Fold Histidine ammonia-lyase.
Amino acid sequence: MQVITLNGSNLTVRRLKDIVYKQEAIGICPDAAARAAESRAAVEKVVREERTVYGINTGFGKFSDVTIDPEDTRALQLHLIRSHACGLGEPLPAAVTRAMAVLRLNALLKGHSGVRRVVLDRLADMVNLKMDAVIPSQGSLGASGDLAPLSHLALVLVGEGLVWKDGKPVPSSQVWEEHGIQPIVLEAKEGLALINGTQAMTAIGALNYMEAEALALQAEWIAGMTVEALRGITDAFHPAIHEARGYPEQAEVAVRMLGWLNGSRLATRQGELRVQDAYSIRCIPQVHGASWQVLGYVKEKLEIEMNAATDNPLIFEGRDTIVSGGNFHGQPIAFAMDFLKIGMAELANISERRIERLVNPQLNEGLSPFLSPQPGLQSGAMILQYAAASLVSENKTLAHPASVDSIPSSANQEDHVSMGTTAARHAREIITNVRRVLAVEAFCAHHACAVRGEEEMSPALREKWAGLAKVTPPMNEDRVFSEDIAKIEEWLKQEAGITSAG
């Protein structure tokens, strides 16, 4: 197992995936630790000199004009964490909370937050010991940071929160004791430094991106299988068409589609059976390519945010300047997640249209109605199309942008918020729905290609067909198809490397 060293500026989606899903260990860059120590010295100087600085010796939010006595600075930080740990709803997946710990540590390593080395070490311990915090999924406005979810994370550091162990929530104090490690006692500013930030929405967002990227690639070979099942025309993927438009993502999809279909004896050429295919076949590069454009935008914003200082106040210029600002505001990630919702929902939209063509006897090029082995006596894939249509419709509701909403908080001191965490959560739901729709398409195309003769498929797609055959057999008779779709869904996740033993 390798150790991935964090320094506040070098974290990528790929490295985060290795930490979260491959459970690679993390380390702390000495230079970054030195920067953090310098910023900590600035906080301690403020405390010694009894200067009034927000978050060090004042209250929070609307209470920022309340000065706190020096002897109460420890209590101030603990009260902050306890009072703000008011998340609601079902817990976030352990993978998300592990990513939150990584991202919070990386932000502190930029050296603008003023925390002690022990805080950094305990966050690293949480990741390396797989102490994944139990964090409710709801309750963040996405400005002033992800206050509620990050407070539940911080509670683990002080030994008061819950962590997952063998699939069950247990007190973090118990697990720290098992490892012979003492929880921390928060000093001035440290509680605020731990919860002022966008790490919940960014963690959900980064894992969303990992799944979305994998699904976008899987959507191409699944679509390729449908092209074969429907005797689709490969001329629509001719490079010249896509170079003429100029979008590189569109051209790249077309190249990959030709790669998947190379050597197919099922796919056709222009004029052999028909002159043109329907849009859901012919426009795969244009539609899927546009979703890849969305993914490119989302990845860029996520990797900026993953390496950003997002708490408040921040410490600059050799400890001498402590400035209050608003880097905790999640608007960039809110927009990115809303954009991701739209881009991914479209992959399901066009997939469902291909499913309809596979099962509709007026459109499926001679395949049996609803792919039924005995039309009339057996319904075949009829209701699978219903299920896919239901998920596509649900996605349309979830794709409504969360970022256009805002609601004031803290007595109108915090009068504009991003709702970025809501956007990220809804994007996660859409991605799950997209995978299920693609699983339905894969199931139907798999059966249709078996009817056509899988030996006629392209070598690349025949390999995918064989992989699917190990998960679910073609339809020989009606059965409980939801079980097949669930198996394909899990197989797609495993193929993408987004399952974890931890």
